[in-house]
Amino acid sequence: MATIGVIGTGSMGGMLIRKFVETGAFPAGDVMASNRSTEKAMAVAATTGIGIAWSNLDLAAASDMIFICVKPLEVKSLLKELKGVLTADKLVVSIAADVTIRDITDLCDARVARVIPSVTSECSRGVSLVAFGDSSTEADRSLVLSALDSISRPVEAEEVNFELLADLTSCAPAFISSMMHEFALSAARREGISPRLAELLVMETLAGTAELLKTVKGFEEVVTRVATAGGITEEGVKVIRKVAPSMYDDLLEVTLAKHSLVKDRIKDQAS
Ligand SMILES: NC(=O)c1ccc[n+]([C@@H]2O[C@H](COP(=O)([O-])OP(=O)(O)OC[C@H]3O[C@@H](n4cnc5c(N)ncnc54)[C@H](OP(=O)(O)O)[C@@H]3O)[C@@H](O)[C@H]2O)c1
């Protein structure tokens, strides 16, 4: 069994550790973590039973598979810190947005996989995007895919499309929640019901719609089941179809522009 190291026990790293251990993807005894502020790693260790490494170097030296869960602009300096330790017999799995497999292989000899997880893995749902570097092996693929399968639906994709696809997977929980919140607030403003009640109604309906979608062929089937021709719901659907395309075009445009900005900043960091 591989020894798993996780560097960065923040929001995502902490969630991945908890879920990998909870689902049995990796036994707690095979996992260790390091974090810049050690207290955070200690807190995750206390609740999951994993081990702690007192430095990133110790962790990388002792691990076969190393998850990099730090912010994108912190990855290059971390890889430099680990210079000489990330050898070809190790597998690096980076979850950092905008840091390419090439950025990583330029700084170490390890085999590399890139994963874009989603906060929805908290409830073992949603998509993890995955791409593998050229030197990764079949064993790497099955290890990474089976671990991700226990906490999400892994979807292999071309790395070049990661930013756009991540809008639909890892960013989407924020987009969907934000849209649904606005829907609830709009109703609360008009009808004098409390925002709390409006939010509850929308949240329950969203959860029900997500369940319903699992039983049908696609979104359109749900739309036609509710929005019968000439009915009231159809009027609302018409508004969404008029307004939403340009909203989503804007959303994708600004998020992709931000990705380009971050990628440029990563490129400008000294190698
Ligand atoms: N949040 C999401 O939904 C999401 C989705 C997909 C991918 N991602 C990716 O996941 C990565 C982490 O995001 P996050 O939201 O989890 O960020 P976060 O909560 O800020 O966690 C980052 C963690 O990394 C630690 N850290 C920073 N530099 C370090 C170093 N040199 N050595 C060891 N630990 C170090 C930080 O420690 P301190 O406690 O000292 O600050 C912090 O605990 C990002 O690259 C992001 O692109 C996030």
Question: Any overview of this molecule?
Answer:
The protein is an alpha/beta fold. The protein folds into two domains: 4-159, NAD(P)-binding Rossmann-like Domain (Rossmann fold); 172-267, ProC C-terminal domain-like fold. The chain is 54% helix and 13% strand. The chain has an eight-stranded mixed beta sheet, with helices on both faces. Helix 6 (138-149) links the parallel strand 7 (127-132) and strand 8 (153-156). Helix 1 packs parallel to helix 2 (38-48) and helix 8 (172-191) packs across helix 9. The longest helix is centred in the last third of the chain and has 37 residues, at 232-268. The chain starts with a strand and ends with a helix. The model has no long low-confidence stretch (mean pLDDT 96). NADP nicotinamide-adenine-dinucleotide phosphate binds at residues 7-13, 34-37, 40, 56, 69-72, 74, 78, 95-97, 116-117, 119, 170. The site of NADP nicotinamide-adenine-dinucleotide phosphate (NAP) has 26 residues, from helix 1.
